[in-house]
Write a structure and sequence with these properties.
Elements lengths: L1 H12 L4 H29 L1 H22 L3 H28 L6 H53 L27 H39 L5 H30 L1 H18 L10 H29 L2 H32 L3 H24 L3
Helix pairs in contact: 1-5, 1-6, 2-3, 2-4, 2-10, 3-4, 3-5, 4-5, 4-10, 5-7, 5-9, 6-7, 6-9, 6-10, 6-11, 7-8, 7-9, 8-9, 8-11, 10-11
Length: about 375
């Protein structure tokens, strides 16, 4: 989240068009998608724990490389891809380890807590970047967040020392009996897996586009309102609106899914995210107060991340553990592939329709993903 947090400054410092600005974020997400595919396959072969360990170390190195060399559109495009390639080594393996070390009846809740940690890190990144921008500019933001990433590698390695691994599991980790083969599962499970993958594609299109552009959108809204918000304050409020709300959404959605069912929760979150996409971009042009725009961004952050844990836990239940890595890899390359395109599409809309209206149209484009996610959720069996 350091790059999106610094984007208003970077567009000027690096003389980037909105399309180029989106392309940098898209390059990260595209590399992340490739990494997720590779690490998912590796996790099936050598175990998620080993892949996670390597991912933690390589992620720290890549963050430091980005901080040292990202000084223009071209250098950022290259170095951010290294960050994306490395970070996939911790994302999917961590979800697999969570699934392997939790009971079926609590899996959505525990997955929610894992993804809440992700949102907490994003919020911290934006808040720290805002403070660093005010003190030493974007270079300071790059270095401070990179050093924090490097420092996190050690506790990550410690956290998985005694975790049950995913290699060669032929029984449910909770001791509930043998895991079924894919052939043993009926058409309902296979249909559910396909709908969950398609829903994830729509979800990621909306989510990655929002994460890339909401910080810049809020900076624009604050500037045009004449509120005089400092970079530090803007960073804190953006982190609160976009990711602290996502922190609470992740574990609350997981608990809700365990209690009320996956389908209901996915429908509610997809519909709420779609509604936010259709509304938020038009608020500055309508003269909405800046606090209303930030409140809507908070609701947006809550809605777009909330179904992530539920989608992941539902997939782990629809697919046997020994095939989970491959299926998550397929889901990742298609979903994150869409997520790599959406920031670029948003930027192209901003370039084509400059001014306040461009933001409205850009978020409507993100709403296409929310529409797909909601249709897929409605298609799931009750």
């Amino acid at each position: 989240m350091t790059y999106p947090a610094c984007l208003p400054v970077l567009r000027v410092a690096w003389d980037m068009s909105a399309t180029q600005a989106g392309a940098v974020q898209g390059a990260f997400t595209g590399a992340f998608a490739v990494s997720l595919l590779l690490t998912s396959v590796l996790s099936d072969r050598i175990g998620a724990r080993a892949v996670f360990r390597w991912g933690a170390v390589l992620g720290a190195i890549a963050a430091l490389v980005f901080a040292a060399f990202a000084r223009s559109y071209e250098t950022a495009l290259i170095t951010v891809m290294l960050v994306g390639l490395a970070q996939g080594g911790t994302y999917t393996p961590s979800l697999m380890l969570v699934s392997a070390n939790s009971t079926p009846e609590r899996r959505s809740s525990v997955m929610g807590w894992a993804l809440a940690g992700l949102s907490g890190g994003f919020a911290l990144s934006i808040a720290v970047s805002g403070g660093a921008l005010a003190i030493g500019g974007y270079k300071a933001a790059f270095w401070i967040t990179a050093l924090m990433t490097a420092a996190s590698a050690l506790p990550a390695l410690i956290a998985v020392r005694h975790a049950a691994d995913t290699t060669g599991q032929t029984a449910d980790v909770a001791g509930q009996g043998a895991v079924e083969t894919r052939e043993d599962r009926g058409p309902d499970q296979r249909r559910a897996a396909r709908l969950l993958i398609a829903g994830y594609i729509g979800h990621t299109w909306e989510l990655m586009g929002a994460w890339a552009w909401v910080p810049a959108f809020l900076a624009m809204a604050a500037a045009t309102s004449g509120s005089g918000i400092s970079a530090l304050t803007l960073g804190l409020w953006t982190a609160l609106a976009l990711h602290v709300t996502g922190f609470f959404a992740s574990f609350s959605a997981g608990q809700a899914a365990d209690r009320f069912g996956t389908r209901r929760v996915l429908i509610v979150f997809a519909a709420l995210g779609l509604l936010c996409s259709l509304i938020i971009g038009w608020l500055p042009g309508a003269g909405a107060p800046v606090w209303v725009i930030f409140a809507m961004a908070g609701l947006y952050g809550f809605a777009t991340i909330g179904d992530s844990a539920v989608l992941s836990s539902a997939m782990s239940q629809a697919v046997p553990m020994r095939h989970l890595g491959k299926v998550l890899g397929l889901r990742s390359i298609t979903g994150m592939g869409a997520g790599a395109v959406s920031p670029v599409a948003f930027g192209a809309v901003l370039d084509a329709a400059p001014g306040v209206a461009g933001w409205g149209y850009g978020f409507v484009v993100l709403g296409l993903g929310g529409t797909v996610a909601m249709i897929c959720a409605l298609g799931l069996r009750r």
